[in-house]
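Exercise 7. Given the encoded structure of a 216-residue chain, write a plausible sequence.
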């Protein structure tokens, strides 16, 4: 089932797809849905990207439901679903947790999921399910090494330089207040303040993007 679901999503625009086991990490209301399909697309988070992610989520949910499984789709823009059931869950459930647990990458010093191939440029969405999909191998530690580029270039000095690990996942990587207030002074993308310098500067994302530009 994993192979055909992965293929279906990759065929319809996903860049990466992984499967996570989240037993013990979910709140009571959703604890029975302890497997996750983590979907990443190599695109900036804008309206078109959100539409693509939602389409991919619906496709995954249809696939699993047709085989008798329950699903819960966590929207990629959960912060905009104010006062809904989902908006109350997003602090308990976040896409990066599913992505590291599915082995798609680690959390970098910039607080974002870093994929070895696509760097921090993946936009993420998740479908939770009770289907017994065998989890992929999680990534346990930050693999940024000595690099500090995002910290050095962040215009609001929001990045602390601390390192993420699965056993200590909530250390303060980014001072969110500083990041947020810098972003409100920037051009908006469809109603959302924007910056994203910590995405552009990361060597992991750039190696792939520059290779593609050069036709490698
Ligand atoms: C609120 C929000 C913001 C807020 C606050 C960010 C925050 N980290 O809380 C603000 C407005 C500041 C923001 C900014 C940005 N955001 Co934002 N944001 C969200 C949103 C809606 C919720 C995040 C949240 O509150 N999570 C709760 C906290 C507790 O978790 P977290 O910090 O996100 O992640 C921690 C856990 O995942 C944990 N973890 C990781 N693996 C594991 C495994 C286990 C077992 C456990 C227990 C924990 C764990 O480690 C992480 C770091 O501490 C998510 C969508 C979502 N639902 O996930 C997007 C999201 C995180 N944002 C995203 C993006 C792209 C951005 C910006 C780049 C936007 C921009 N262009 O400026 C900036 C980047 C700033 C930065 N360097 O972090 C992407 C990240 C993609 C990626 N590759 O990582 C997301 C996932 C949206 C998406 N659908 O793709 N964002
Ligand atoms: S989005 Fe901009 S302000 Fe926020 S952490 Fe990244 S570089 Fe810093
Ligand atoms: S710029 Fe360097 S330190 Fe920052 S997330 Fe990327 S690899 Fe890690």
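Solution.
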């Amino acid at each position: 089932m994993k192979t055909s679901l992965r293929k279906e999503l990759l065929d319809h625009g996903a860049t990466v797809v992984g499967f996570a086991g989240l037993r013990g990490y979910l709140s009571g209301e959703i604890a029975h849905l302890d497997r996750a399909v983590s979907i990443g697309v190599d695109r900036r988070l804008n309206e078109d990207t959100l539409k693509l992610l939602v389409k991919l989520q619906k496709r995954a949910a249809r696939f699993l439901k047709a085989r008798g499984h329950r699903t819960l789709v966590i929207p990629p823009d959960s912060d905009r679903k104010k006062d809904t059931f989902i908006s109350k869950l997003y602090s308990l459930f976040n896409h990066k947790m599913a992505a590291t647990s599915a082995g798609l990458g680690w959390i970098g010093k910039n607080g974002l999921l870093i994929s070895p191939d696509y760097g921090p440029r993946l936009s993420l969405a998740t479908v939770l399910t009770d289907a017994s999909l065998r989890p992929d191998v999680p990534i346990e530690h930050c693999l940024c090494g000595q690099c500090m580029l995002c910290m050095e270039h962040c215009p609001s000095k929001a990045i602390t330089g601390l390192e993420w690990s699965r056993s200590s996942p909530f250390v303060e990587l980014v001072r969110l207040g500083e990041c947020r207030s810098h972003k409100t002074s920037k051009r908006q993308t469809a109603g959302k303040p924007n910056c994203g310098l910590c995405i552009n500067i990361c060597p992991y994302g750039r190696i792939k993007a520059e290779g593609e530009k050069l036709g490698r």
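Remark. Helices lie at 2-11, 47-66, 85-89, 95-101, 149-153, 176-184, 197-200, 203-213. Students should compare their own answers with the one above.
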